[in-house]
C-alpha cells in the first residue's frame, strides 16, 4: 500500500515534448482517474509510472521511494492492459501465476494466491482454460486477476473497458469499483470516457496536450470547472457555450463584453418567461429516451446546443422557446484564455 | 454468357495441363538423376536406354566404396546443424531487439543486412580463399564452413524472424516486463513459444540453405570439411563417364533434405504464410 508523488515529470521523444511538467500527489488507497482526449498524454503518463516508458525529467516516487530507474516489476505496481495482453500459450492459472513464478515464490504459495484471486473474480472454473477459449469479459477478469495475485501497492489500468461491449462495460466498471472497495489499494485508471471517470474516481485528473488542466473530485470538476475545456469535457451531453450575440438582451447583459462566454449545462436549461430568459432557440430535433429527452436547438445566430429535460413541458419541435438557468448554474469564461471567471 | 462458360471450360482444362507441363519440366532433371542412379554406367550414356533398362542397385551398394559418402554426409550434417544453431542464437536476439525496441535506424539496419546478400560472392572469392588459407589458417575446417554458412544466412534469418516477431502484440512482452521476467526469460518463455511456427520454419529453411550451399563449401574446402556439395562437384569432371555412380551419390546427397522438407511441409507452409492468413 502506498501513495504516489510526481514532481516535474516530463517526457519527450527526441525534440517532441509530449508531457511538459506534471506535478501530482496520489494518496494511499485513492482511486485516481486520468482522463482526456486521445493524444493528451494520459497513457504515456501511466506507462511512465509502470516503468514501460523512460522518464525524461522530474522525479517519480511510489511510497517514499524514488523509482525513476527501478525496473517495472520492482516498483510494486501491476498493470491491466487495454488488450488484456494475456499470454496466449498459457492457461489462466499459469497466466496469473507467471509473475509470482518469476519472483521465485514457492509453488504452494502461488497456488493459494491464484486460487484466492480467482475466487474474488469468480473465474475458478476457468483456471485450466487458455485465453483463446475465453470471452472478452472473462479475459479482462483474468488480466485483473493477474494483477491482483502480485499484491501490488498500486494498480494501473490502461483503458481496461474499451474493448468490451456496452453492457459488459457497465458491469465490469461496477466490479472494478467493488474491487477497489474491497482491496483498498491505490488505483490509477486511464480512460477517455468521462462516465467511467465520474463513476469510479475519488480524484479526476483532466489532461490536455501533456498538461494537467484540473485535478479534483468528480463533483468538484462538474460544479467548478476551472476552464472551458474541463467544463466541456466533464458532463454529458457537454456544456453549451454562448457568446454575446447568441443571447437574449437579458442574457447578453451578464457578459461584460464580447470577449466572454456564458456556459450553461444542458440539464440546467429550462423554459422560462421571455423576460428572464437568457437564450431563445428553436428545437429542431428531439431525442426522447423515456427517462429524459435531449432537445437539439438552434439560436437565431446559428449556434446549435442541447437542452436536457425530464418532462418535455414547454418544448415543441419548430416552436421558438425562451430558455434560462438559475444564477448559481451559470458559468462565465474568458474567451481568449478559456479560464472561468468566478465573479460574474 | 456462353462465352464465359466456354472460357471457364477452357481454363478448367488448360491451366492444369500447363501446370503439369511446367512441373514436369522442373522435375525432369531430378527424375532423370534418380532414374540414372539405377542404371549401370554403360547404360547411363546410351540414349536408347533412357526409360527402358535393367535396373540395378549396384551404384548404391558400392557408394561408400566408390566415394567416401558417409564422411561427406557427416560433414554436411555437422556444418548445417551447427550453422543453423549459431544463426538462430545470433538471429533470435537480434530480431527480438529490432522488433520490440526499434530505433529510428532499425529499418536502415535491416536494409543494410539484406544488402550484403546483393554483393556478388565471386567478388570476395580471392580474398576469402587467400585470407583463410594463408593468413588465418582455417581453410578447410568445420569452423570456417559453419561460420560462412551462418554469415550468409544470417540476414535472411533475421528478416524472417523479425517479421514473425512483429506479429506478436507488444503488450504481451510488456506484460512480461511487468511480471518481472528477464530478457532471456522473455525470449524463452514468451517470444519463442508464441512465434514457434515462425522460428521452426526459419530454422528449417536455414538448414536447407546450408545443406544446399555449394559456392563456398566447394571453394573453401578440400577434404577435411568437404560436404556433399563438394563430393558431387569434385567428381563431376574426372568421373564424368560414370553417370550411374554419380547419379546415385547425387540422389543420396539431395535425398535427406527432400525427405526432411517433405515431412516438415505443413510446418513450412504454415510458417511462411503466418502473416498473410492471420
From TrEMBL, chain A:
InterPro entries linked to this entry: AAA+_ATPase, ABC_transporter-like_ATP-bd, ABC_transporter-like_CS, ABC_transpr_MalK-like, ABC_transpr_MalK/UgpC-like, Mo/tungstate-bd_C_term_dom, NA-bd_OB-fold, P-loop_NTPase
Chain segments annotated as coiled-coil in the UniProt record: none
Residue stretches making up the ABC transporter domain: 4-234
One annotated GO molecular function: ATP binding
Protein keywords: ATP-binding, Nucleotide-binding, Transport
Pfam families, A to Z: ABC_tran (PF00005), TOBE_2 (PF08402)
Similarity comment text for this entry: Belongs to the ABC transporter superfamily.
Protein known as: Sugar ABC transporter ATP-binding protein
Source organism of the structure: Jannaschia pagri
TrEMBL record, chain B:
Pfam families reported in the protein's UniProt record: BPD_transp_1 (PF00528)
Subcellular localization(s) per the UniProt record: Cell membrane
Entry keyword Transport: yes
ABC transmembrane type-1 domain span: 73-264
Membrane topology type: Multi-pass membrane protein
SUPFAM superfamilies per UniProt: MetI-like
Entries under PROSITE patterns matching the protein: ABC_TM1
Record's keyword annotation contains Cell cycle: no
Membrane-crossing segments per the record: 12-35, 72-97, 109-131, 143-165, 190-211, 242-264
Gene3D superfamilies, A to Z: MetI-like
Keywords, alphabetical: Cell membrane, Membrane, Transmembrane, Transmembrane helix, Transport
Family per record: Belongs to the binding-protein-dependent transport system permease family.
PANTHER family: INNER MEMBRANE ABC TRANSPORTER PERMEASE PROTEIN YCJP, MALTOSE TRANSPORT SYSTEM PERMEASE-RELATED
Name by which UniProt lists this protein: Binding-protein-dependent maltose/mannitol transporter
Amino acid at each position: 500500500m502506498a501513495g504516489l508523488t510526481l514532481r516535474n515529470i516530463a517526457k519527450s521523444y527526441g525534440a517532441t515534448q509530449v508531457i511538459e511538467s506534471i506535478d501530482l500527489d496520489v494518496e494511499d488507497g485513492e482511486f485516481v482517474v486520468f482522463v482526456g482526449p486521445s493524444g493528451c498524454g494520459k497513457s504515456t503518463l501511466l506507462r511512465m509510472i509502470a516503468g514501460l516508458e523512460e522518464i525524461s525529467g522530474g522525479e517519480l516516487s511510489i511510497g517514499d521511494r524514488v523509482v525513476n530507474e527501478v525496473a517495472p516489476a520492482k516498483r510494486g505496481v501491476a498493470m491491466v492492459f487495454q488488450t488484456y495482453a494475456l499470454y496466449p500459450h498459457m492457461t489462466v492459472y499459469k497466466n496469473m501465476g507467471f509473475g509470482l513464478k518469476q519472483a521465485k515464490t514457492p509453488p504452494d504459495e502461488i497456488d493459494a494466491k491464484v486460487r484466492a484471486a480467482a475466487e474474488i473474480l469468480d473465474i475458478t472454473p476457468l483456471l485450466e482454460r487458455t485465453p483463446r477459449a475465453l470471452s472478452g469479459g472473462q479475459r479482462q477478469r483474468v488480466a485483473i486477476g493477474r494483477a491482483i495475485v502480485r499484491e501490488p501497492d498500486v494498480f494501473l489500468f490502461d483503458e481496461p473497458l474499451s474493448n468490451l461491449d456496452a453492457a459488459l462495460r457497465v458491469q465490469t466498471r461496477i466490479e472494478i469499483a467493488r474491487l477497489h472497495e474491497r482491496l483498498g489499494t491505490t488505483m490509477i485508471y486511464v480512460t477517455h470516457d468521462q462516465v467511467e471517470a465520474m463513476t469510479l474516481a475519488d480524484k479526476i485528473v483532466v489532461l490536455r496536450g501533456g498538461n494537467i488542466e484540473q485535478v479534483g473530485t468528480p463533483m468538484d470538476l462538474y460544479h467548478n470547472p476551472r476552464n472551458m475545456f474541463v467544463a466541456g469535457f466533464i458532463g454529458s451531453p457537454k456544456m453549451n457555450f454562448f457568446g454575446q450575440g447568441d443571447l437574449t438582451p437579458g442574457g447578453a447583459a451578464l457578459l461584460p463584453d464580447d470577449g466572454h462566454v456564458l456556459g450553461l449545462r444542458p440539464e440546467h436549461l429550462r423554459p422560462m418567461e421571455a423576460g428572464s430568459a437568457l437564450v431563445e432557440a428553436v428545437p429542431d430535433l428531439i431525442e426522447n429516451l423515456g427517462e429524459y429527452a435531449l432537445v437539439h436547438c438552434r439560436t437565431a445566430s446559428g449556434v446549435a446546443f442541447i437542452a436536457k429535460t425530464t418532462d418535455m413541458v414547454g418544448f415543441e419541435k419548430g416552436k421558438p422557446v425562451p430558455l434560462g438557468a438559475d444564477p448559481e448554474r451559470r458559468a462565465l469564461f474568458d474567451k481568449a484564455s478559456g479560464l472561468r471567471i468566478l465573479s460574474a | 454468357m456462353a462465352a464465359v462458360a466456354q472460357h471457364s471450360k477452357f481454363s478448367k482444362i488448360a491451366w492444369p495441363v500447363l501446370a503439369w507441363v511446367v512441373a514436369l519440366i522442373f522435375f525432369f532433371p531430378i527424375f532423370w538423376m534418380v532414374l540414372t542412379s539405377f542404371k549401370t554406367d554403360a547404360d547411363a550414356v546410351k540414349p536408347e536406354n533412357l526409360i527402358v533398362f535393367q535396373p540395378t542397385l549396384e551404384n548404391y551398394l558400392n557408394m561408400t566404396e566408390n566415394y567416401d559418402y558417409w564422411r561427406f554426409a557427416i560433414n554436411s550434417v555437422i556444418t548445417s546443424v551447427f550453422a543453423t544453431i549459431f544463426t538462430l542464437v545470433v538471429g533470435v536476439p537480434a530480431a527480438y531487439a529490432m522488433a520490440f525496441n526499434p530505433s529510428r535506424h532499425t529499418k536502415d539496419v535491416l536494409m543494410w543486412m539484406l544488402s550484403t546478400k546483393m554483393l556478388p560472392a565471386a567478388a570476395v572469392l580471392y580474398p576469402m580463399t587467400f585470407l583463410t588459407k594463408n593468413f588465418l589458417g582455417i581453410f578447410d575446417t568445420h569452423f570456417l564452413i559453419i561460420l560462412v554458412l551462418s554469415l550468409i544466412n544470417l540476414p535472411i534469418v533475421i528478416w524472417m524472424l523479425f517479421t514473425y516477431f512483429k506479429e506478436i502484440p507488444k503488450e504481451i512482452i510488456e506484460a512480461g516486463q511487468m511480471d518481472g521476467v528477464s530478457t532471456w526469460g522473455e525470449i524463452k518463455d514468451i517470444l519463442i513459444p508464441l512465434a514457434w511456427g515462425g522460428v521452426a520454419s526459419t530454422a528449417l529453411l536455414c538448414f536447407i540453405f546450408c545443406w544446399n550451399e555449394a559456392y563456398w563449401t566447394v571453394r573453401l574446402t578440400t577434404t577435411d570439411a568437404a560436404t556433399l556439395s563438394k563430393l558431387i562437384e569434385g567428381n563431376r569432371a574426372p568421373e564424368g563417364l560414370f553417370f550411374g555412380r554419380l547419379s546415385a551419390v547425387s540422389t543420396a546427397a539431395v535425398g535427406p533434405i527432400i525427405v526432411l522438407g517433405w515431412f516438415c511441409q505443413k510446418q513450412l507452409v504454415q510458417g511462411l504464410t503466418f502473416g498473410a492468413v492471420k
